[in-house]
Amino acid sequence: MRFQGKTVVVTGAGGGIGRDVCLHFAREGAKVAAGDLDIAMAERVVSDVTGEGGTAQAFAVDVTSPESVNAFIAEADTTFSGLDVLVANAGVREIVPVLDLPFEEWNRVIDVNLTGVFLSCQAFARNLVAAKRTGAIVNLASTLGVSAAPQRAAYTASKHAVVGLTKELAMELGAQGIRVNAVGPGVTRTPMTERYFQEPEYAEKIRSIHALHRWGEPHEIAKAILFLASDDASFCTGTTLMVDGGWTAGKAM
Ligand SMILES: NC(=O)c1ccc[n+]([C@@H]2O[C@H](COP(=O)([O-])OP(=O)(O)OC[C@H]3O[C@@H](n4cnc5c(N)ncnc54)[C@H](O)[C@@H]3O)[C@@H](O)[C@H]2O)c1
Fold first, then answer.
1. Which DSSP string do the residues of 232-245 spell out, in sequence order?
2. Which residues pair with 34 in a beta bridge?
3. Strands 240-243 and 85-88
4. The CATH homologous superfamily of the domain defined by 7-244
5. Angle CA(24)–CA(132)–CA(222) in degrees, nearest 5?
6. Which of 113, 192, 197 has the most ligand 1 atoms within 8 A of CB, as the residue to mutate?
7. How far apart are CA 145 and CA 240, in angstroms?
8. Could you tell me if the CB of 12 is within 6 A of ligand 1?
């Protein structure tokens, strides 16, 4: 029970990885503020958490809006009397050749994946500093935060930026006792990637890019996030932990 009495704020909580993050934190005693653009999805996750005997509340939040993010952090604080951990997980992805990538789509991905992480981290850290509390942030990067794949220009740029922003925030917030790290998942089976698995040939290709010859499951990402948020990682800050089945370890020959 590493998070007994702690409050964890999760963005994109209604999605594949977000759901498992909420369940795993609650199983270790945390109270969970589950925020998502789609409140119905966040409410479903909250009902899964409370169904297991955990504590959680759903909040509507758009991570691209400073007003919405500030309201989410303030309401989570009021509801649970103090915040301890942020998981900046909300994310979207395009699959479009760069020559055809519309400006609006570029902006949408950068807004959610990069600006959304910045706004969430800033609001959370401001709250902690004002309350004189210490805490931990875990941002969602990707294998595409340290390497690239075709047709994902905005996504790759945004995730590289998350890796950099994580280092920057760690430098600035370390003195206040706030650790900031990221995880870099390989392909993980969630609603975001579900279409990869509909075609056996493509699913096989997905397997083969990972050294472990399989894709990941959301609980495997959640467990790494809990590690970085916990006191087990008390001397870790500014790092991105790849949880990618060996994708970024090298190339198959
Ligand atoms: N699934 C993978 O293979 C994989 C790999 C590497 C990184 N990631 C990252 O992990 C994170 C979670 O991905 P997932 O696979 O669970 O995706 P998902 O699509 O299942 O869930 C994403 C969630 O984010 C929410 N969201 C989208 N825009 C939002 C906004 N503006 N404000 C608030 N919430 C918003 C969605 O409603 C959804 O519930 C993302 O940042 C993604 O880039 C996923």
1. GGTT--S-EEEEST
2. 10, 58
3. unpaired
4. NAD(P)-binding Rossmann-like Domain (3.40.50.720)
5. 15
6. 192
7. 9
8. yes
Answer left, alpha or beta for residue 228, where phi above 0 means left and psi between -120 and 50 means alpha: alpha
The alpha carbon of 175 and the centre of ligand 1 are apart by a number of angstroms equal to: 30
Selecting among 155, 185, 222, 224, the annotated active-site residue is 155
Q: Could you write out the DSSP letters of every residue in 134-161?
A: -EEEEEE--GGGTS--TT-HHHHHHHHH
Q: What is d(CA 234, CA 248) in angstroms, rounded to the nearest whole number?
A: 25
Spatial contact of 177 and 170, defined as CB atoms under 8 Å apart: no
Ligand 1 site, residue 23, Cβ cutoff 6 A: no
Active site residue 196: no
C-alpha 192 to ligand 1 mean position (Å): 7
Three-class SS of residue 13? coil
Dist CA 51 CA 132 (whole Å): 33
Q: pTM of the full predicted structure?
A: 0.98
| Cα 15 to middle of ligand 1, angstroms | 6
Distance (Å) from CA 214 to ligand 1 centroid = 20
Question: What is d(CA 186, CA 243) in angstroms, rounded to the nearest whole number?
Answer: 6
pLDDT in tens for each of the 253 residues of the chain? Answer: 999 999 999 999 999 999 999 999 999 999 999 999 999 999 999 999 999 999 999 999 999 999 999 999 999 999 999 999 999 999 999 999 999 999 999 999 999 999 999 999 999 999 999 999 999 999 999 999 999 999 999 999 999 999 999 999 999 999 999 999 999 999 999 999 999 999 999 999 999 999 999 999 999 999 999 999 999 999 999 999 999 999 999 987 7
